[in-house]
Amino acid sequence: MNVKHKIEPMAGRVLISEPHLNDYYFSRSVVLLADHNTDGSFGIIVNKPIPKRFGEVVRGFPAFNAPIFLGGPVQTDALFFIHNLGAELEGSSRIMDGLYWGGNMEQLKHLMETGGIAPSHIRFFVGYSGWSAGQLEEELERHSWIVSQANASEIMDAPPDAMWMRYLRSMGKDYAIWSNFPADPIMN
Predict the structure, then answer these.
(1) Which of 66, 77, 80, 164 could be 119's S-S partner, Cβ–Cβ 3.0 to 4.6 Å?
(2) Distance (Å, whole) CA 22 – CA 36
(3) Distance in angstroms (rounded) separating the CA atoms of residues 26 and 35
(4) What contacts 5, CB < 8 A, 6 or more positions away?
(5) What is the rounded distance in angstroms from the CA atom of residue 39 to the CA atom of residue 132?
(6) Which pLDDT does position 1 carry in this prediction?
(7) Is residue 124 within 8 Å of residue 54, measured between CB atoms?
(8) Using an 8 Å Cβ cutoff, are 152 and 96 in contact?
């Protein structure tokens, strides 16, 4: 397929796995890039919820009924988060307009205790996705990923199970066809 859709990777953009990418973590994944520079890339898979809630996984915090997502294969023993609180959460790093990475955990705990944050304002991730210098570019050349634009609402509000297909369909007819590829071609 002749790809006419060429967008460069950068923080705030998403990587959409191509249909043939058969990997436990990345098959039919949408990865939000939180950082991309000459040293490498860092992101989180935003469309793979796990069957646990925040309160079931994280101890020492108030009961909080937020979903947790599989963020990637790196540091799967660590919890990461994105949110739309901005300056309300000290130490946050801006990914794009209306979407931030991390911040002060004690302040986050306080917001949870006082009702100053709702589950719809934050998403938690176990692990992250990382690429060393030049590695993501190599994967793009091998056609493992498509880079696309994103906005905070698409990341925070869209149903995760429809995200991969929705991005492909929004990119036009050449990509919309891919959204119909069966997850297991043998089942076609």
Answers:
(1) 66
(2) 24
(3) 18
(4) 146, 148, 171, 172, 174, 175
(5) 6
(6) 31
(7) yes
(8) yes
Backbone φ and ψ of 88, nearest 5° = -65, -25
Q: What is the pTM of this model?
A: 0.89
Q: 51, 100 in Cβ contact below 8 A?
A: no
Locate all alpha helices (DSSP H) within the chain, ordered by sequence: 54-57, 105-114, 135-141, 152-157, 160-170, 173-176
Looking at residue 178, what DSSP letter applies? G
Looking at residue 180, what is its pLDDT? 58
Averaged pLDDT in 10-residue chunks for the chain of 188 residues: 65 93 90 96 97 90 93 95 94 96 96 94 97 96 93 94 88 66 52
Q: What is the pLDDT of residue 184?
A: 53
Q: For each of the domains in the chain, give its residue range(s) and CATH number, in order of start.
A: 14-175 (3.40.1740.10)
* Cβ atoms 182, 65 nearer than 8 A: no
Query: By the 8 A CB rule, do 40 and 133 touch?
Result: yes
Query: Which tokens in the block code for residue 9?
Result: 């990777």
In one letter, which amino acid is 133? A
- DSSP at 121: G
Alpha carbon separation from 103 to 23, 34, 56, 184, 188 (Å, rounded)? 31, 14, 21, 39, 45
The two beta strands, 40-45 and 93-96, are unpaired
Distance of alpha carbon 5 from alpha carbon 78, whole angstroms: 35
